[in-house]
TrEMBL record:
Coiled coil: none
InterPro entries attached to this UniProt entry: Cyclic-di-GMP_PDE-like (IPR050706), EAL_dom (IPR001633), EAL_sf (IPR035919)
Domain EAL: 27-277
Domain of life: Bacteria
Species whose genome carries this gene: Roseovarius atlanticus
Pfam families: EAL (PF00563)
Stored PROSITE patterns: EAL
Recorded GO MF terms: cyclic-guanylate-specific phosphodiesterase activity
Protein known as: Diguanylate phosphodiesterase
């Protein structure tokens, strides 16, 4: 009887938890969809402004967030696959495509700075390095306008490799941002050795900070660490005006989040230029 029920539920024999099997099958389907999209280059960037505190009219730089599209052109939510493909070659190829598109954007728009996300696992990946060297060779201004973002958890996978990698590329003018700071377990010894240029404070400390004394204390501590190592601070996930004002008052250098605009595949600097021309 139990085996018959499993068959009626379209669950293979041997899988005794229909819900777990359904979740696993769905996840595998998403990964296959992502692999297919990446194989055909169905990837694009969405841009979100990072603005200086107290001066929101002129972004300090933009972050280029990778978007993977399914066969119908719809965006596949990153939360459904990003942790899994991080350890796969598909993750490396996404990093390559993201860098290719980011460099192209910098070449086409010489007045902007742009940050691109990458995994520490992509360090030494031949295609990624070729893409970067080609981009730097085609336009010597790209390096000084490119920011590479590495998450705290990714950097701690191979800290010594990241330190050497950063030192080599910083000589070419490239800046580095430590993303999601506070979400992981960075050793302060490595933080001293990394020499990141920008520290992005994880959104879990920022959302609702104006009304959360605990997060206020923690964020002040993170700002103090950044100041000690001469890093520019960016608060992520700023969603309310009172949070933005609080962060400005405690000395955060830059702010990023939906309060200043959602990520958009239409370059926001072009819209800003159009509005300015009509004024």
């Amino acid at each position: 009887m139990g085996e018959k029920r499993l068959k009626w539920a379209n669950v293979p024999v041997g899988h005794h938890n229909p819900l777990a099997y359904a979740v696993s099958a769905r996840d595998q389907s998403v990964i296959q969809m992502v692999e297919e999209a990446v194989r055909h280059g169905h990837v694009m960037l969405a841009y979100q402004a990072v603005v200086p505190s107290g001066r929101q009219d002129r972004p300090a730089f933009y972050e280029g967030l990778v978007r993977v599209l399914d066969e119908t052109g719809r965006i596949i939510p990153a939360r459904e696959f990003i942790d899994v493909i991080e350890t796969m070659e598909t993750g490396r190829i996404i990093d390559c495509l993201s860098l290719e598109k980011g460099i192209r954007t910098l070449r086409e728009h010489p007045d902007i700075r742009l940050s691109i996300n990458m995994s520490a696992r992509s360090i030494g990946y031949p295609r990624w390095m070729r893409t970067l060297k080609r981009g730097l060779g085609q336009d010597p201004t790209v390096g000084e306008r490119l920011i590479l973002e590495i998450t705290e958890s990714s950097a701690m996978l191979v800290p010594e490799l990241v330190v050497n990698f950063m030192a080599d590329l910083q000589k070419k003018g490239i800046s580095f941002a430590l993303d999601d700071f506070g979400a992981g377990y960075t050793s302060f010894r490595y933080l001293r050795d990394f020499y990141f240029d920008i520290l992005k404070i994880d959104g879990q400390f920022i959302r609702g900070i104006a009304d959360n004394p605990d997060n206020q204390v923690l964020t002040r501590a993170l700002i103090s660490i950044a100041e000690q190592f001469d890093m520019v601070t960016v608060a992520e996930s700023v969603e309310r005006p009172n949070d933005a004002l609080f962060l400005q008052n405690i000395g955060v250098h830059c702010l990023q989040g939906y309060y200043f605009g959602a990520p958009t595949v239409q370059p926001p600097w072009l819209e800003a230029a159009r509005v300015a021309a009509m004024a």
